[in-house]
Amino acid sequence: MKCIVGLGNPGIKYRQTKHNVGFMVVDELLERHGWTLNKSKFKGHLTMETIEGEKVILLQPQTFMNLSGESLRPLMDFYNLQPDEVTVVYDDLDLPLGKIKLRQTGGHGGHNGVRSCIEQLGTKQFNRLRFGIGRPDTPMSVIDYVLGKFDENDQDTFKQSIDHAADALEAWLKQPFPKVMNEYNK
Fold first, then answer.
1. Does the chain have fewer CB atoms within 10 Å around its N or its C terminus?
2. Is 112 marked as a binding-site residue?
């Protein structure tokens, strides 16, 4: 069994913000397969499905970003998942808009959702799919930027990148993570 965790903030106010790309990638997987998040457990919305013979849990924590690990940890405990069976999807200011980067470990890079996951899991050794949102072109606070929506001009790049990220996650369900990294980190 594997688990894909999309980080974001719950509520309509945050729905299409840059900070919610983790939710959006999970939403793309749900849409592709005609699924819905049909359970509310572990402080999150989730579903358990099968893709290509692999059982997968899709999770969107409802704890708000900074407490995401409080949803992930009890889910992993309940299903006896190991950190290498989990991929966390989140926004990254340090990658250009639309670029995705897969990693097997690392620090939080200032991302409070990832920080919470590291604290709750007690390890940095879990898979990540970082989704580039770039940095603001004009002086603005990081909070205002990540909680803002994507510009109209960026919509095509954004949609293609959501598709690309979902493709990478589907590939991970069939192949080892390092192989997927080699293919999608180009």
1. C
2. yes
